[in-house]
Design brief:
Layout lengths: L2 H29 L10 H12 L12 H41 L5 H31 L5 H12 L21 H33 L3 H16 L1
Helix pairs in contact: 1-2, 1-3, 2-6, 3-6, 3-7, 4-5, 4-6
Organism: Branchiostoma lanceolatum (Common lancelet)
Family: Belongs to the two pore domain potassium channel (TC 1.A.1.8) family.
Protein name: KCNK6 protein
Length: 233
């Protein structure tokens, strides 16, 4: 991976966060007079843009005006493809890194199918712990009257982009009053968690696709690992 690919990915991620902040300001401006007081809190509009771009769509905030609906239509039309491209790019890079680790750890295992199952199981288990169980514990601690199962369910629904809307993080008074610094930081942290967490299923899809269709994802990582070992020797 050269500097240009890293720069491209950094620009994609930066453009997403800029779209959240700018889109949130525009949506708040459009909906301010027509909606309830929640939209008058800037970071509620910001988080609305996050749920649109990631297609989570909790439904806790929806456009109430014609202008808001038109804005959301064009906003989604632009940002969702950028989100998909970003996730695909990150998923590919992570798959390459996993391929490199696979070569170092499972290099002596000759059976391709066993290696794939081992890699998939480890990636799946690591993701469950990092992106579901740990966030569930955090949600349980921060969200008012949430059980661990409810925290886990919210994390799952978020990363699966199901967004049932029965449990929406950041709405509890325990986190802080609307507009408080604690609530603002928590909302931005939620957006970062959503984006970062969605790279996990994206990586899983790349690994499975590489295995089924013989793409050069993890194979590239394996080749890089072999070159590294050759240089070391």
């Amino acid at each position: 991976m050269n500097v240009n690919t890293h720069l491209k990915l950094a620009l994609l991620v930066l453009s997403l966060f800029l779209s959240f902040f700018i889109g949130g300001a525009i949506f708040q401006r459009i909906e301010d007079d027509a909606y309830d007081s929640r939209v008058r809190w800037y970071f509620m509009s910001y988080y609305f843009c996050v749920t649109v771009t990631t297609t989570v769509g909790y439904g806790h905030v929806t456009p109430a005006t014609t202008g808001g609906k038109v804005f959301t239509f064009f906003y989604a039309l632009v940002t969702i493809p950028v989100m998909v491209i970003t996730l695909a790019d990150i998923g590919r890079k992570l798959a390459n890194l996993i391929g490199l680790a696979e070569t170092k750890v499972l290099g002596r295992v000759k059976n391709r199918h066993l290696r794939f199952m081992a890699v998939l199981a480890m990636t799946l288990l690591a993701g469950i712990v990092v992106f579901l169980l740990i966030p569930a514990a955090i949600f349980t601690a921060l969200e008012e009257q949430w059980s661990f199962m409810e925290g886990f369910w919210c994390a799952f629904a978020t990363l699966a982009t199901i967004g049932f809307g029965d449990l929406v993080p950041g709405m509890s008074r325990e986190v802080g009053q609307l507009g408080s610094p604690e609530r603002n930081v928590y909302t931005v942290a939620l957006s970062m968690y959503t984006l970062l967490g969605m790279t996990w299923p994206a990586t899983l899809w790349v690994l499975v696709a590489d295995y089924l269709y013989g793409s050069k994802g993890t194979e590239q990582g394996q080749e890089e690992g072999q070159k590294t070992e050759a240089v070391a020797i």
